[in-house]
Amino acid sequence: MPDAPRNPPAAAVGRLSVRMGMSKDSLLSSLGLSRATISRKERDAAVLSRDESERVLGVEALIGLVQTMVEQSGDPAGFDAARWGSDWLARPLPALGGQTPASYMDTFEGQKLVADLLATSQSGAYA
Q1: Other beta carbons within 10 Å of 43
Q2: pTM over 0.90
Q3: For 36, 48, 49, 71, which has the most beta carbons within 10 A of its beta carbon?
Q4: What is the C-alpha to C-alpha distance for residues 93 and 8, in angstroms, rounded to an integer?
């Protein structure tokens, strides 16, 4: 039986916020994660729970999707998918009824909706 994937350390949240150029508080808020819990886990060098991991890894997957889209559509030189994703997540979108994509990032279903919307935008269906 193969080993189950390991949950990332709590420090991954801070690294992701730096990579995205987003405050840690904003990232935690959009993911629906408790600052106190994540801070305690960072202090204890603990790993994220399964649910916390899914939320953080969902953002990582979204960044990967953006990078792939740019590579398929043009010249990715100088493009920073994590920073672009941070800006895009904070922008209210008509396709979401004026809500921000970040407001959907706290559940798996919401992350899937945002990823599908992003993929659809590549085809020009949403601008």
Answers
A1: 9
A2: no
A3: 48
A4: 31
